[in-house]
Amino acid sequence: MAEIIAFIGLGNMGSGMAANLIKNGFDVRAFDLAEEALARAEAAGAIRAASAADAASTADVVVTMLPTGKHVAAVYNDEIFAAAKAGALFLDCSTIDISTARRTIASALDKGFAMADAPVSGGIGAANGGTLTFMVGGQEDAFIRAKPILSAMGKKVIHAGGAGSGQAAKICNNMLLGATMVATSEAFAMAEKLGLDPQIFYDISSVSSGQSWSMTSYCPLPGVGPKTPADNDYQGGFAIALMLKDLKLALDAASSVNASVPMGAQAESLYQVLANKGEGGRDFSYVIQLLS
Ligand code: NAD
Fold first, then answer.
1. What are the boundaries of each domain within the chain?
2. Does domain 4-161 have CATH number 3.40.50.1370?
3. Whose CA is nearest to atom 17 of ligand 1?
4. C-alpha span between 72 and 83 (Å, rounded)
5. What gap in Å lies between CA 43 and CA 183, rounded to an integer?
6. Which site from 92, 145, 166, 258 is most exposed, i.e. has the minimal number of CB atoms within 10 Å?
7. What distances in angstroms separate CA 212 from CA 71, 156, 260, 261, one per listed residue?
8. pLDDT at 213
């Protein structure tokens, strides 16, 4: 019999992820505070639950995809721990602070459950298309149990290490992404001021040592490189508000271990300027507008 999966948090990311579990034959019990999200999950074939505890009560595996660490701690401590079946596996796919991830996993293990943090890389398109990358933090046996479930929602599932390691990998990756996008943007803006045709600069740099994903897969300049949110007035894609959230998590984590992250800090302050200007909903490549 297919495993029963409780899916809690069916927003932009969770809705596509839950739909892919259903397509892959899992029996999904869904809960979200928002009626619209619940109705969408039901239309995709999930069974509606009355609460997070209700969803978890019959599940072999609980997947959460919630906004922040505060939401994750509350849902596990107030609902899931008390309701779940003995031996259930919990997978938190939200992007949250490492300390909440570690604390929640420690509590789960204490109570006889298995749990891993499993944040994702890839946006809403990858969530809908089942092509996410999962970075998993937790014990080996939890990873082995999680792999077939996560594989139904993604193309890569990588064991990053012990509890919280998935979150550590996620924020280090996104700090690098934020910094390379700023660096790519300033290089394009300066190249133009120096009289270079942006397309010619792209043709040179994309096959030279300045090349990066931010340049060749996500060029911040409209009309240059592949089609990106820059070609759509910086709509869609990965919102500045979400990049800022991840950079703040990265800076907090850096200060907790005395890591020196000047590039990450600079990126955070530039994205904060954009958020303060009311541009938090635009794609993060919009940072080029600050540098032009
Ligand atoms: P979202 O706000 O669209 O969805 C979150 C959902 O959680 C909402 O539907 C909300 O109603 C629900 N929710 C909140 N509290 C709840 C509770 N107590 N019980 C049940 N449901 C509750 O957010 P999203 O874009 O889907 O992101 C989810 C997580 O994934 C975040 O941690 C985000 O940082 C991360 N992430 C997002 C993207 C992206 O491109 N959107 C990419 C990678 C990672």
1. 4-161, 168-291
2. no
3. 33
4. 15
5. 43
6. 258
7. 34, 20, 22, 19
8. 95
Cα(156) to centroid of ligand 1, in Å? 21
How many whole angstroms separate alpha carbon 22 and alpha carbon 163? 27
Would you say the CB of residue 94 lies under 6 angstroms from ligand 1?
yes
Rounded CA-CA distance 270/41 in Å is: 37
Is residue 283 within 8 Å of 236, Cβ to Cβ? yes
Residue 213 carries which side chain, given as an amino acid letter? Answer: W
Domain range 168-291, CATH architecture: Orthogonal Bundle (1.10)
The CB of 254 under 6 Å from ligand 1? The reply is no
Q: What's the pLDDT score for residue 123?
A: 86
* pLDDT the model gives residue 2: 75
Domain 4-161 matches domain 168-291 at the CATH topology level: no
Query: Is residue 244 within 8 Å of residue 268, measured between CB atoms?
Result: yes
Which atom of ligand 1 is nearest to 15's Cα?
26
Q: Which residues are catalytic?
A: 170
Beta bridge partners of 158: 135
Q: For 243-268, what is each residue's pLDDT tens digit?
A: 999 999 999 999 999 999 999 999 99
Residues of the chain with pLDDT under 70: 1
- How far apart (Å, rounded) are the C-alpha atoms in residues 245 and 165? 18
